[in-house]
Amino acid sequence: MAPTPNPRILYTAIPQSLPVFGEHITFDESATIDLDTAELNGGVLLKTLAFSADPYLRGRMRDPSVQSYTPAFVPGEPIVNHTIATVLRSEREGFKAGDHVVGLLPWAAYSIVPPDARIKPVSNEAGVPWSYYVGILGMPGQTAYFGLKRLVELKAGQTIFVSAGSGAVGNVVCQLAKLEGLKVISSAGSDEKVAYLKEIGVDHAFNYKTADTNAELQKAGPVDIYWENVGGPTLDAALANMNRFGTILVCGMIHDYNSRGDPYPIKNFGAILSKSLTVKGFLVNNLIAAEKEGTAVFDREMGKLVADGKIQYKEHRYTGIENGAKAFLDLFKGDNFGKAVVIVADQ
Ligand SMILES: NC(=O)c1ccc[n+]([C@@H]2O[C@H](COP(=O)([O-])OP(=O)(O)OC[C@H]3O[C@@H](n4cnc5c(N)ncnc54)[C@H](OP(=O)(O)O)[C@@H]3O)[C@@H](O)[C@H]2O)c1
């Protein structure tokens, strides 16, 4: 059989600020693969169904000498991220053609992974679209679930503020908090996103681009728990409106991911002292590593919440691998409305 095209999204150069398509990230159509004869060397041949575009990938586009919690990407290599794929051929025990797996895989139509690759079988008992396994039933959902349930004691009647509330992590945090009986305040970057937040039960939602965050929090606060997704001026406003003994869960700070080492200068850090606040930064992988059963409880509980319709989920689908770079870059402009996923193949 003739070789099959294997289009890929490559990381090509270290960006100083917002990456540029064609310069720091490129679409490459030069590679091919022979799906029948390619050597597996004990591994598995996978066909990509969908992959996730996540803000943290920006942190991997850095000078490799700068230490961080994930290794720097290597220029010339494909971007790698959470992917759902189907097995085409396998020489590895426990995996057979037709199985579905999730793992950190290259942004390519096909990939061959070595025998020790960390890929996890997915049975999809919830009967949801496969892409959910890189979204609400994958890393972003795990971030919301373990962050909210493990890092703070939730009490009905408390007030939580969630920034970037319509996004992948934020919308799950909002809905889990509502299920726990909390009052939820949330911000997002468009009126359409605000309307969606109200639909999923958020008590006080506002557009931070047209409203004053400080005034909105004064109206609806004070805040017992702040779920921090963005940093920058939103963090300043949250600090000014925290309740005494409140908790800030620092999940992300996307405002500064492209700030050329010149982050927004926070003015209200003094509130941490004067209000006796607790500030907890976390990485989802560390939370999962601390779980006795790994993600098992999440797989059960979140799968059921989604299957039973107790939690709504919104995807922003980009169709075609060639749109992978756009899916990623849109995150920094707020052009995604829901979880950004790239659909590469239907099955
Ligand atoms: N700690 C962890 O383990 C972990 C795991 C996953 C994600 N995260 C972090 O969680 C945050 C949310 O991630 P996600 O995957 O759910 O992304 P997302 O919310 O689906 O997409 C990113 C959103 O951030 C908002 N945004 C972009 N630039 C902004 C700016 N300058 N100021 C304010 N808002 C801005 C935009 O929404 P608007 O239209 O509302 O502005 C955009 O849609 C990110 O900071 C991410 O790095 C952390």
What does this structure look like?
The protein has 347 residues and is of the alpha/beta class. It has helices spanning 57-60, 139-151, 168-179, 191-199, 213-220, 232-240, 270-274, 284-289, 296-307, 324-330, and strands at residues 4-5, 8-11, 25-28, 32-33, 44-52, 80-90, 100-106, 110-113, 119-121, 159-162, 183-188, 204-207, 223-228, 242-250, 278-281, 315-319, 339-343. Strands 5, 6, 7, 8, 9, 16 and 17 form a seven-stranded mixed sheet that branches. The radius of gyration is 21 Å and the shape is globular. The structure holds NADP nicotinamide-adenine-dinucleotide phosphate (NAP). NADP nicotinamide-adenine-dinucleotide phosphate binds next to helix 2 and helix 3. NADP nicotinamide-adenine-dinucleotide phosphate is lined by residues 54-56, 140, 143, 164, 166-170, 188-190, 193, 229-230, 232, 251-255, 282-284, 331-332, 334, 336, 339.
Query: Which percent band covers the strand fraction?
Result: 25-35%
Any ligands, ions or cofactors bound here, and which? NADP nicotinamide-adenine-dinucleotide phosphate
Terminus-to-terminus distance: 21 Å
Our count of domains comes out at: 2
- Outline: globular
Helical fraction: 10-25%
CATH topology of the largest domain: Quinone Oxidoreductase, Chain A, domain 1
Mean pLDDT: 96
Question: Which sheet architecture does the biggest sheet show?
Answer: 7 strands, mixed
CATH architecture of the largest domain: Alpha-Beta Complex
Could you name the CATH homologous superfamily of the largest domain? Medium-chain alcohol dehydrogenases, catalytic domain
The level-1 CATH class of the largest domain:
Alpha Beta
What class would the helix/strand composition place it in?
alpha/beta
Which regions have little confidence, pLDDT < 50, spanning 5+ residues? none
Radius of gyration: 21 Å
Number of helices: 10
Keywords: Oxidoreductase
Protein name: Enoyl reductase (ER) domain-containing protein
Pfam families: ADH_N_2, ADH_zinc_N
InterPro entries: ADH-like_C, ADH_N_2, ER, GroES-like_sf, MDR_fam, NAD(P)-bd_dom_sf
